[in-house]
Every structure is written in C-alpha cells, then in structure tokens.
Amino acid sequence: MESKVEHAVDQLKSGGVRMTPQRYAILQYLIESYTHPTADDIFRALSPQFPSLSVATVYNNLKVFVDTGLVRELKYGDDSSRFDADMSDHYHVTCTKCGTIVDFDHPPVLEVERAASSSTGFTVIGHRLEIYGTCPACKGMHS
C-alpha cells in the first residue's frame, strides 16, 4: 500500500518536479501535520534537520505544491497563509484567539452554490465556508 507521501512524490515527479531532500521533508511534514502550518512553522520544525534551509525555500516549495494541486493554501485575512495537504472536501473551524484551524467534516454545501448560480447567472466554480469561534484551550483560559 503506497503511503500518502509516496503518492504525492509520484504526482510531483510525473509533473516534472525534481525531488530534493528538503522538498521531501517539507511535503512529509505537511502530510503528517494536522495543524495547517504556516511556512514559518514548517521552517522552524525542519531547520534543525536542514541547516541550509531558508524561509524562502519553504515558501517556494509550498508554491510548487500548491501549483501542482497537492496542497491547498488557506488565506484567512492575516498575512500568514496556512497550508493543508488534505485535498478532500472539508471545511475548517478557526479560533479567533490563537488562530488554530481544525478540520470539520460536513457534506459539501452544494445547494448554496446552486442558489448562487441560479440567482446571479454566474457559473460557480467553488465556495469557501469559514467558521469562527474559540477553541477549547482558549476557552479554558478565560472561564
């Protein structure tokens, strides 16, 4: 059974992307992480292992992964994009205090897309549902 990382590597190679040890490590970190890390998070986690790694290298590799459809960039208002290697249909709940993003499985809300399309005449290509609240850790600090 092929691992998610091996599958992603095959996808990159078939797209003509050369695999470097740094690129492999970034990809593996993303796939094994459920925290939706920022480029800085990834840099901090991997720099002990790769002393020559720079934040720019992390950003450039993340862009390659996004462009090849392996990783989703989550832009939520602030400057620091977060990255998600889970490309399945799912939503996110974001803590307004600490910025934690948690996956939330729910059937896609396709009727909203259909309603938008029929009332505007637009050809709808997708939507983003953002849910905000206070995570259990932050809630515990203020109760």
From TrEMBL:
Name used for this protein in its record: Fur family transcriptional regulator
Keywords, ordered alphabetically: DNA-binding, Repressor, Transcription, Transcription regulation, Zinc
A Pfam short name: FUR
Keyword Transcription: yes
Family designation: Belongs to the Fur family.
Signal peptide region: none
Superkingdom of the source species: Bacteria
Listed InterPro entries: FUR, Fur_C, WH-like_DNA-bd_sf, WH_DNA-bd_sf
SUPFAM superfamilies, per the entry: Winged helix' DNA-binding domain (SSF46785)
